[in-house]
Design goal:
Rossmann fold; six-stranded parallel β-sheet; alpha/beta; single chain; 185 residues; binds flavin mononucleotide
Length: 185
């Protein structure tokens, strides 16, 4: 698969790191693009910065000279993780002012898979209306809400409860987080 991971300036850069850590560049073509504000949040939240696994290709936000800026060569899946309310709103309303927004526009018009991992609390009516519009357009929303029933003991394990759901929706088999099992007698 051709996969585009877009990282924006919402809290939760670790979600992006863990997703990248769990994608196999030998098996998939993996592209990364960061919003300007993503850099600032990464500096706050990821000691040592973002680690791009070998084989992952990072792209300049401002250059439209990338394959996925065109409907003739879209990614199969694009994940915006974590996704700010700003980027979510811009995607919902068709802004295509940089490569990240344009790629999302392309993915939507070409009927490929777009997964957003929004992170904000509380939500305003504007956020919710944008989410409604995106859902109507076929976007998958996986809020960055960890689950606790798996008994996670570390931040990484909690983060992985969200990343596991993202991988599930990308169609990528994973054992990243325990799954709810049948009732125990
Ligand atoms: C440390 C930090 C954490 C932030 N967390 C969030 C967040 O969780 N959600 C959000 O929507 N914006 C958050 N913001 C604000 C966005 O970075 C800001 O709105 C920015 O304009 C978003 O631009 P982008 O969507 O291009 O990344 C945060 C900013 C900083 C500096």
């Amino acid at each position: 698969m051709k996969i585009l991971v877009a990282i924006t300036g919402a809290s939760g850069a670790l979600y992006a790191q863990r997703l990248l850590d769990n994608l196999n560049p030998a098996e998939h073509q993996i592209h990364v693009v960061l919003s300007n504000y993503a850099q600032q949040v990464i500096a706050e939240e990821l000691p040592g910065g973002l680690r791009l696994p070998d084989g992952v290709k990072a792209h300049n936000l401002k250059s439209m000279n990338v394959s996925f800026a065109s409907g003739s060569n879209p990614p199969d899946v694009m994940v915006v993780i974590p996704c700010t309310m700003g980027t979510m709103g811009r995607i919902a309303h068709g802004y295509s002012e940089d490569v990240l927004q344009r790629a999302a526009d392309v993915v939507l018009k070409e009927k490929k898979k777009l997964i957003l991992v929004p992170r904000e609390t509380p939500l305003s009516l504007i956020h919710v209306k944008n989410m409604e519009l995106l859902l109507l357009a076929g976007v998958t929303l996986i809020p960055a809400n960890p689950s606790f029933y798996s008994g996670a003991k570390t931040i990484l394990e909690l983060v992985d409860t969200v990343v596991a759901r993202v991988l599930d929706h990308m169609g990528l088999p994973n054992q990243l987080a325990p799954r709810w099992a049948e009732e125990k007698e």
